[in-house]
Structures are given as C-alpha cells and as structure tokens.
Amino acid sequence: KNFPPGPRPVPIFGNILQLNLENPINDLKKLSERYGQVYSIYIGSRPAVVLNGLQAMKEALVTQAVEFAGRPQGLMVNHVTEGKGVVLLNHGPIWRDHRRFALMTLRNFGLGKQSMEERILAEVSHLTSHFEKSAGKSTDPQTLFHKTASNIICTVLFGTRYEHEDETLQLIIRMITENAKIVNGPWGMIYDTLPLLRGLPLPFQKNFKNFETLKKFAGDHVAQHEKSWVPGEPRDFVDCYLDEVEKRGDDDSSFNKSQLIFYLLDLQFAATDTTSNTLLTAFLYLMTHPDVQERCQKEIDEVLGEKAQASFEDRPRMPYTQAMIHEVQRVANTVPLSVFHTTTKDTQLMGYDIPKDTLIIPNLSSVLNEESQWKFPHDFNPSNFLNDEGEFVKPEAFMPFSVGPRMCMGEGLARMELFLILVTLLRRFQFIWPEDGGVPDYTPVFGITLTPKPYKLGVRLRGNQ
Ligand code: HEM
C-alpha cells in the first residue's frame, strides 16, 4: 500500500523479462518517464525501488542518510563474498569500523615514506614507457589502464607492484573484469531471481570459481606479511590491519584474518575496474575530440612549464583540464546503478511508503545525464563544468561516486590517479584515432562498471618533446 508505482510483475520472474538484461539503463529511463522519479520493479519476487534524478537521490541518500544506507543480503554478490569485506556489509558497527579504518589508513599513506602521489607517478612512468614504445603506431589499451590501476592499489595494499607482463597481474585483472560483468548481467539476475537454479553448473558459477583464485591471491599476500610484519612499523595496508587486529586483542571485534582477505579483495576490485574504465573512456573521447585534447595540452604546457612532473596541487591552475576530467567521468558513467542499497527502517520518500529492507537501486546514470541539470546533457563538452568566466564549477548533479554515508571510499585516490595520469600522458603524447580504427562506437558494455567497446589508441610523441 502506497508503495511506489511500477510495471505489473509476473509470477516468479517479476519484471526482469521486461528489461534488456544485457543493458537495462534505457529501459529504466523509459520507466522513469512513465512512473516518475521514484518507482518500483520486481526482481523475481523481490521488490526494488529505483531512484532517478538529483532530487530523489538527494532526498534518499543525503537527507535520509541512515534510512537508505543498508546493503542487500542474500544476493549472488553476498554469497561470493561470504558476507565479509566492506562494500556489501550491512549498515552497522562492523561496516562503520572498517570504513573508518580504511579511510584513515588510506589518508595516512599520503603522509608516509612514499606519498600516494609518488606511488601514482611511479606507476605512470611505466605507462609512459609503454606509450614511448608505441609512438608512431597504435596500441591496444584494453587492459593497459587496468594494469596501472591495479598496480597502484596493490602497492598500497601489499607493497607489491607487478610487471605488465606478469601472469598474476593478468590473471587477477581477468577475474575482476569477468566478475564485474557477471554480477549484474543476465546470469547474475537469473541467480538472484531463481534460487532453485543456484546449484546448477550454469555460467554464474564462474564468479565463485574466480573468487577462489582471488582469495588465494590475497591470502598468499597476507601469509607473507604475517611472516615479515614488525608491529608498529607498517609498510602497507595489510601491516596496518595486522596492527589493528593486535591492538584490539580478543575483544570479539570483527577485525580478523578472514575479514581482511575479503576487505583486500573489495578494495582491489573497487579500485581496479573503475578508474581503468574511466581512463578508457577518457582516451576514446580525447581521440575523437582533438579540439578538447589540444586545449588541455596548451593549458598543461603553460602551467607546468619546465617542471619535471605534474603534481595534484597544480589542478586549481588548470580549470579546463579539470573540466575535461569531470566531463569524462560524467559521460563514462562508470558505475551506472551504483552499488545497490537497502532501507534500514520503514520510511517515506517523495510521498511513498518504503518498508525496511527494501532493495534500492540508485540510478546514478539518470543524474549524470539529467536534462534539467546540465548545459549539454547528451554531448561530450567540458563546458558543462565551466562558468562564463572559464572557471571550473562542479554542479551538484556530478555524483559518479554516489553521495551519502556509503559514497565511494576511494574518491580521493581515484581523482588523484585520473589527474596525474591524464596530465602526464597528455603533456607528452598526442592521441589520434587510427585511420584503420573504423567508426568510433561510444556505446559501452554494461556491468557493475561500464566498459567502452575495444578500440585502438593511436600514439604520437608531441612536437614540443
Ligand atoms: C573513478 C573511480 C571510481 C568510481 C566512479 C567509484 C564509484 C563508486 C560508487 C558509485 C560506489 C557506490 C556508493 C554507494 O553505494 O552509494 C562506490 C563504493 C565504493 N568504492 Fe568506489 N569508485 C571509484 C574508485 C574507487 C577506488 C580507487 C577505491 C579504493 C580505494 C574505491 C573503493 C570503494 C569502496 C570500498 C566502496 C564501498 C563503500 C561502502 O560501502 O561504504 N572506489 N564507488
């Protein structure tokens, strides 16, 4: 009663047969045109409320921060991660303690021996060498930025970086990217909708198999750390966590080794497939919008002058480049349906009643393209982030990291990576759509993260080098 309206569900399947499961974003948009900013759909027998547009998103995730801060339980993602980690923990003290611990630890890495900025720039130098070898030719960037993003988080978590050719690096990237497509793709939906099929040897089993490999990967790192860890002298995230376990003693706290392994995988996963897909989108648009690329390069040259390296502190002096990076994030729409939330108590939203434990789907995509919020909602145009004076401005509807208490924990790291990587590469190289590249296809492949279709990246050394 007074539940948000929506299309009529059919028994067993709910509304999933009415959605294009390969990519439901357009269907969700059409439903919003019909039923409004807050509407319901059924995933099997489970009701879900879809939030669309800035107003609904803010009223739910910010104004009623606690009421909408839960996470669904009983889905494939929960079974794969065995109810541990941080991303899928329900709202409560274990989630809060772990979130706080990681935010503080990640911040402290900026103060340690090697700052976050130095770690990122060190990794960017490997990207630069790769592109130097490709200069005058074209290269396939499909997993290149995944390697960069994965290595940056690996150095933070484990103090380890892998060569681009390393089999372990390639394996974990393959597992992460495969799982990102299975989880909310058709097979994930089937798993979540039809519990009777869960034990059968269907393609969703791959997700569980991949996770076993990933668990071994993180478990091996933890085992090595346990042998070499010196309490009170942390080298990386794992050491900090081991210190925390010791500090808490046997206080029945949730800080323990198996929680650590899933926490590491959450961070590895969240940091790899997001930043890398955003970078893939960046280069797709920069190649096909050479005017934007040149304007960034001019600004970067002027601001950096003779400086050896870019620094994150340079960004206020680069309003156009900042606007370009934000515009890339807007069109990349990297996590289009966010991570699903749930309500933690009975509540109301925009006049509707929503009971406790209702699945909430924050359609971030609908805000990043909302026609009333953007000057050029359907184009790639950095002017979306510039005022009449050419200064950088960030509209409220810019929420690729979501909003509220569950918002992305890696925003600071991701923003630093995007800035340092794009500025360093644009300073040194020109990126050109290759003559044999065919017609650019901007339609992304759907999953937890959106991925641009494979393309080739034409690389030239810039004239001023
Ligand atoms: C461009 C890059 C990134 C984008 C677009 C992005 C986006 C998001 C989004 C939309 C959410 C869901 C928030 C919600 O449920 O309301 C999220 C959660 C999360 N992100 Fe990111 N993310 C990015 C990079 C990173 C990085 C680098 C890290 C690692 C340090 C990270 C760690 C996390 C974690 C741990 C959560 C779960 C937070 C929680 O449940 O409390 N993300 N991210």
TrEMBL record:
Per the UniProt entry, what species is this protein from, by scientific name?
A: Aldrovandia affinis
Major localization class: membrane
- UniProt GO MF annotations: heme binding; iron ion binding; oxidoreductase activity, acting on paired donors, with incorporation or reduction of molecular oxygen, reduced flavin or flavoprotein as one donor, and incorporation of one atom of oxygen
Q: Which UniProt keywords apply?
A: Heme, Iron, Membrane, Metal-binding, Monooxygenase, Oxidoreductase, Signal
Family the entry assigns: Belongs to the cytochrome P450 family.
Q: Where in the cell is it found?
A: Membrane
Q: What's the protein here called? A: Cytochrome P450
In the UniProt record, which is one GO cellular component term?
A: cytoplasm
The UniProt entry, under Gene3D superfamilies, shows:
Cytochrome P450 (1.10.630.10)
**Could you mention a single GO BP entry for this protein?**
xenobiotic metabolic process
Q: Name one Pfam family in it.
A: p450
Query: SUPFAM superfamilies this protein is in?
Result: Cytochrome P450 (SSF48264)
What positions does the entry give for heme binding? 408
For activity, the cofactor(s) needed are:
heme
